[in-house]
Prior knowledge:
alpha+beta
Amino acid sequence: MSAEADLFTLRIVDPAAVEASAQVWQNFLCAIADTHPRYRNDSSLPPICPPAMVTAWTRPDDGPVPDGETRTRPVELHHRLKEILGYPHALVEENELELHADVHPGDRIMVEQRLAELGPEEERRGRSGRRWAIELHYRNEDGDVVATERIRFFAYRT
């Protein structure tokens, strides 16, 4: 198996499931002036997380890390690919989010990352680089996939 084929076996699974907190998404709702009753628990149906926020639960903040803890970078696999393949810079070219199930307050969300695509070396606007896509599967505490995200990047050297 080639070294590049080995890249497709890389998986990043962040075991630290993060709780979807209604308190956290209230700021988001205020910022966008969204008054949907299911987001605010003003409905006869159970409240749900605003779908656009599903990825937020697994993106670590950049605040201080408590002693004895480690923290992955957001979309850790992308950063590792940049290091392995020697590309210090990258741009997001496309981002797709497919929603599969509602996220409710208290759900614990974890993410699994895998390399979905790896293009050949190419020249683009005078820069040597490669395109790749990372696929992220967001799961709840029952292991059900609640969302799938695909992020396409162009990584390059200056």
